[in-house]
């Protein structure tokens, strides 16, 4: 039995408190990770607040984990004790369904989420299936790598999925934890990047991270000035927007793709898609293999989320910082 020292919410919306639990003996295909850093994602907050109605308490958030392999079961492949690794929103999948056999483990019908019905990474240890415990490539900065395992792969996957070309003109809606990583990826991809943001205080930082221009999407005139020009728009916000006005900025055959979990139905006029053969889509995170490729891409192009570091013991302060909209741009907890 291994004791885990963690931080847990004991009820919806409550602050986190110290919590200890015992890990049962390790399964054949399981890996225990010693947590070095864990990113703080909006989904952690949604789970703490039970916004999606699937939280179980005590709830230990944390699903942007980097650390090292502490222990492994007898059937674990490709890892050894001491390896530097990361684990994100998903931590296990069945490994035998068509999606898993096709290398799309993130679409497995029984994929397990790290903080849904199991304990996450705001702790000194966390457990996952070997397939989702991803070795870190040499040269990756562990202090900044955590957010790549949720926010990072969430915005990297649609670039590949939608076949975005280096010659494309693209837009990113919302420049927060996810959006700022999308801008960095799309810039390195070769695209002309338009950031949609209505916060003038962020403009300078947005241009510095690689956007070619910042457009205030709340101003209809500026939207009109880029009408029909974008091949791909990625929405990273979770609020209802005037989606039709964004559809008008798409070029023919352009795609509006959302990774922001907007809870209200999205109003999409059929004619806005029909004329111009436009489409609307969405995606969760990405596959195991694509996560590995993304990490290599990050090392090659020196891409990291812009992070603010808090000590794990100050997790409540970090949560308040995020909730107040002050994060620039992703918070990481140091164990
Ligand atoms: Zn997340
Ligand atoms: Zn499966």
Automatic annotation (TrEMBL):
Stored PROSITE patterns: ADH_ZINC, D_2_HYDROXYACID_DH_1
Keywords carried by this UniProt record: Metal-binding, Oxidoreductase, Zinc
Domain Enoyl reductase (ER) positions: 14-333
Cofactor(s) listed: Zn(2+)
InterPro entries, A to Z: ADH-like_C, ADH-like_N, ADH_Zn_CS, CAD-like, D-isomer_DH_CS1, ER, GroES-like_sf, NAD(P)-bd_dom_sf
Highest taxon, organism lineage: Bacteria
Family stated for the protein in its record: Belongs to the zinc-containing alcohol dehydrogenase family.
Protein name in the entry: NAD(P)-dependent alcohol dehydrogenase
Source lineage: Bacteria, Pseudomonadati, Bacteroidota, Flavobacteriia, Flavobacteriales
